[in-house]
Amino acid sequence: MAVISGDSSTDLAPAPGLRDLFFGMLQVALSAFGGGLSAWSQRIVVEQRRWMTNEQFLTGLTVARLFPGPNQINMAVYIGAQFRGLPGALVALAGMLLVPFTLLMLLGVGYFWLHELPAVDRVLAGVVAAAAGMALSMGFKILHQYWRDPVALLLAAGVFVAMVVFKVRLIPVVLITGPLAMAWYWPRRSTG
Amino acid sequence: MVLSLLAAACSAPTRLTDLGNLLRVLWEFLSLSLFSLGGGNTLLAEYHHLAVNQFCWLTDAQFADLYALAEAAPGPSSMLVGLLGLGAAWKEGVGWGLLSGYGAEAAILLPSTLLMVVACLSWRRLEHSPWRIAFERGMGPITLGILFAVGLKIVRTADTTRAGDLSVPGVIVSLIVCVLMLRTRISPLWFMAVAGVLGGLGMINR
After folding, report:
1. A90 and A104 inside one domain
2. Which domain-ending residue is among A59, A79, A112?
3. ipTM score of the complex?
4. Which residue is closest to A156 within chain B, CA to CA?
5. What is the pLDDT of residues B29-63, one digit of tens each?
6. pTM for the full model?
7. Which residues of A touch B101 (CB under 8 A)?
């Protein structure tokens, strides 16, 4: 749904330069320390800095979800590439990741220093069990979308069995089932 | 014979100081990048295979710890790759560890970033292409299957004691958190905090 809106585009700020992209994404990353990265990038990029319209932003979310890579990181790439091509994408990526990634690496250094302490290990045993529960919920979270599509459930079950029972690695699984699934779901004229 | 070879391989971690090894590891991450469907979590089982079974950088428990750390820290949880890189070179010193961590993260992000840039620039043509529609619909069920396999793998890795037995309290906590994640909107940080306290009290062993 490409909305051609002469009105709203005149409200937009001039296209950001590389420096603006870096600091804009840095602001998004810092604002989102408590979570809600997607909501914050919308607030800052669309409402506050007025770099793009809401429609453009939502298109970006669609593209970011569709293509491989972490969604939030793809979104930063989309925003950067929209204005400054590849350099813009890299700068936006750096702005988004620099602070949280450096923080995580420092946590990691702390972990490797301390993880053999019995007290630390006991706490981690609990934290890890909770984190595993989060991982387990990922599949259930999107299961309802496929509940009425037996072929989708069959495909998912096949992938699951291949990986869990036959220990097939991810890349061959995707390379074999991907084309089959795409052939089955190829848009037919009757379905529009 | 093959099994004994694998076991022997895993007693010696793959060192990144050897240029050949470094290139091999980089290649693994670069090629995985384009297979990170569904927002990146589909790669978790592969990360485990590479870091624990193939390159022997980490134990199962360490992998589970780093996964939890990446989930708890602010920012995208796919930054776990940086922690794996850190673990891979930790024995060479902190400086090399950090370098390896930044390198690993760059390797996992570079290909998908390049593809994303191409996608943005050609989106007008792609948007209504049958390829895009078939890809979007077809990858959904595959992602679903992978996520279930990944969830099971992480639960098994996290809730196993050092002796190799299933940790029953750990599994119970994982199942409760899974249900709460689906039924409530409570921040998962709370679940990790509460479970951490339970662990600190010695109620969840491993």
Report:
1. yes
2. A112
3. 0.91
4. B145
5. 999 999 998 878 899 999 999 999 999 999 999 99
6. 0.91
7. 105, 108
